[in-house]
Amino acid sequence: ILQIVAEGNTIICELLRLKDYVPELFYLKTKEEQQKYGEIIKDFGYFQIADAQEAKIEADEKLRLIDEELRENYIVTLNRFYIVFESIHKYVKDLNTFIDELNTGLFIQQSMEKVFQDAEGKQLMCEALYLYGMMLLVADLHIPGIVRERILVSYNRYSALKTHSDSSIDEVCKLLRATGFNDGAVGSNGGSMGRKLASYPEDFFARVPISPLYIEMVIGRLRSDDVYNQIAVYPLPEQHSTALANQAGMLYVCLFFSPKTLHNQSARMREIVDKFFSNNWIVSLYMGITINLINSWEPFKAAKTALTNTLDNANLKEICHRQKQSMDTLLTRTRNILREGSLTEQNLLDHMPKVMALVRDCNITVRWIMLHTSSVSSTLDTASAAASKRCRQVRELIEQEIEFRGVVFFELLLNTSQLELKVREMLKRLLEERDDRWADYRREATDRMQDLADAFSGAKPFVKTRKNESLSRCFANIRKEIDGLSREEKRLSQTGRT
């Protein structure tokens, strides 16, 4: 499962790299491009008329020359795109195979329940499903469906590359055919334009069936457990939604594998919203990809109803009031601590918990304000105009209630980054110098113990100091113990005594 998850992250990284290399020609944006290349760059409608279309190209000298030009210019790019598309299908096949083998007892003394009981196993099992969902969303977001179809058809026509995967091009095409999302600005020569998004993305996620038991166990763990043990780092109750933010993004994606939960299970959705989305509704999914729940959950009755309390105006004003107070307080505190001479190494060591709590609070506040006041529309929004209007109203209400000013927020952002940098540099320097400092302090301690031992030995009489052999031996022994200590000494207690 670790290898599967590693492959999943690799596939998403490759998709994010390739999104900048999608051939512009395959969008067929202009009428000139459609007229010139429309007979050659086809969507999946090509497969129904393949023989006739190939004959047409062969019979027309102009089309044949254009076809050869496209083959020569784009064959390498098409191969690379097909490999990553095929990898997505291979990933879900490998995941299904692993789940089947786990359920059939192929792994001795291991079962799905036991894997989920293990802390790391639970994380990997949840990530495996989440990453598959993210692959599909990233592919659909950055490479429009109609363009994917044209790339796959062109690859099928041009490439003689044979991959070593068990996935056939038919299966890859079925998985990655156009969904209708993100196709609006793409020109079409017939085929995939104008599809409704009534069941997006749940129908997209269901194209390759995955074990319902596995899906339910993943959702159950993400819903009820602190999968990454973050609550301990964010101890205050109002910080729990931030502590579980990464887990909330995973749960959001995985819920689309179980649309009945979003549609019908009101109690479960209410529990999810109360735990993960009680004071936030903009979810960060992966590498800057965000989603607005007001839009995204609009078609789902149970999910939309569960979100009602969070989006109540009174609750929104209460949340904004807390965020405004937090921003004002943190701005003052960061200004004070960043004054020249305020943050020294000794002060940092003496007040480490307070400084780290300040850094944490700054990041929590900056994150919330940045997400919820952004005027950039969410990258995966597919909902109605009414939902979009509601999103705009909520954002305007937030900006009004917290009296949002970009300059003030930017100052808090800069102060936070400067404080983090200073703390990081100080801690880095302390770690680099700890061996030398340890040696210096140990040498100083042994010298002082030796002075005390000499003072009571009578060999070096001090004023008003009487000879005391017992104290002399005691200090001499302490000196030997100090001299024999190492920085990694396991027997040291919190007071430094052995």
Describe the global form: elongated
Helix content: 55-70%
User: Number of helical segments?
Assistant: 22
In whole angstroms, the N-to-C terminal distance is 45 Å
Strand content: under 5%
How are the strands ordered across the major sheet? 1-2
Mean pLDDT: 85
User: How many domains, in number, for the residues?
Assistant: 3
> Total number of β-strand segments?
2
Protein name: WASH complex subunit strumpellin
Organism: Anopheles maculatus
InterPro entries: WASH_strumpellin
Family: Belongs to the strumpellin family.
Please describe what this structure looks like.
There is one protein chain. The protein is mainly alpha-helical and 498 residues long. The chain folds into three domains: 1-161 and 168-179, no CATH class; 237-404, no CATH class; 435-484. Helix content is 65%, strand content 2%. It contains 22 helices and two strands. The chain has helices spanning 2-18, 31-37, 50-59, 61-103, 112-117, 119-142, 145-158, 169-176, 202-205, 212-224, 240-243, 245-255, 259-264, 266-276, 293-296, 301-306, 313-337, 345-350, 352-372, 385-401, 406-457, 469-484, and strands spanning 282-286, 289-292. It has a two-stranded antiparallel sheet with strand order 1-2. Strand 1 (282-286) and strand 2 (289-292) form a beta hairpin. Helix 4 (61-103) crosses helix 8. It is elongated and about 115 Å long. The chain starts with a helix and ends in a 14-residue tail after the last helix.
